[in-house]
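Q:
My hope is that you can spare some time for a protein that puzzles me. I hope you can help me see how the letters and the tokens relate. Thank you; the sequence and its tokens follow:
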Amino acid sequence: MNIPVGRGRTRPPRGNRLRALDGLRLVAALMVAAYHYGGRGGEVADAWGSSPARQFPTLHEFFAYGCLGVQVFFVISGFVICMSGWGRPLTSFFASRASRLLPAYWVAVVLVTAVFALPVVAYEALSPSDALVNLTMLQQPLGVDRVLGVCWTLWAEVRFYALFALCVVLPGASRRRVIMFCAVWTLAAVVTEAADEPLLDLILMPEHAPLFIGGIGLYLVHRDRRDAYAWGIVGVSWLIAQHYAVEKLWHAPDAGGFSYRSSLGIAAVVTFGFVAVAAVALGWLHWANWRLLTVAGGLTYPFYLVHEHLGWVVIHALHRGLGLSSGVTFALTVAAMLLLARLLNRFVEEPLTPRLRAALAKPPNRPGCSREVRPGAGSRTAG
């Protein structure tokens, strides 16, 4: 749908990559990595040899908020999926999403499984059967253990893609249809929360829905910054999103607990995600048009996939094996995971993503029809 350019209206520039959004993706991924390396207990404590709270006496309190990088990711995802699905046929949309997610994911699953199977690695590998199921990205609904700890977010993303594809992309994206989709999903998610119905909860994702919907609303703002309905969607989504984040992540101060996140701090990080994407939507960050941000965006997904579990192995080797300090180990582990992400981006995603996209988007040949054209049949010559 073309939006007329007038006072207060903007038309998104075609072919103009929003590089600030790429940089924001990497910021969110680094937030999650800080949480996994120094903001929580569990198996990472085995890698350090003690609780990260002892390794980072002050910083661990800030690292604990890094888990909210996922909320930032989901807002970005709502924006990007609406942008990429607008004006696209369903086949093209599916091909784009599958080719974006699967190549790096498949390699990450194989790589983590192989590393954990090494005798020198202390972490337990999954069975071959469970590892194979993980290649489908459907391990969670099947009740199979995860190879990648972060893949629960991918299951949420896949369900969002399916909802958006069926309700918006298939019938054809339009402003009215997107607004109705956001309104109906918001109301249905709230009703699902009240009804406590597991099946509806699985499909409608009340906890995550306001983040995705907020991102969609911000894309409508990107198309028309004076769209009152779009701003309404963003406002309602933010209010509900911060509520869920506080409800799920806040707990009373506990001396025996690993971390304490204040409700104000949690709401502030969720607000940061909405405000940062809004700044991109409104064009306030057009000046951040550096090519390096595109490179950063390319690193984000593979880094996100491999950083947690392989990071444990690197932390153990550097800190307990070589005796490096906590700060140096943290920095070198992040650098090592970024380097691995660059290798995956360069040698897996760059060659395989366009090939998989082309293969999935290619229309099938109809039975009995030949693509061969006889010489001279239906042809014209200029003369």
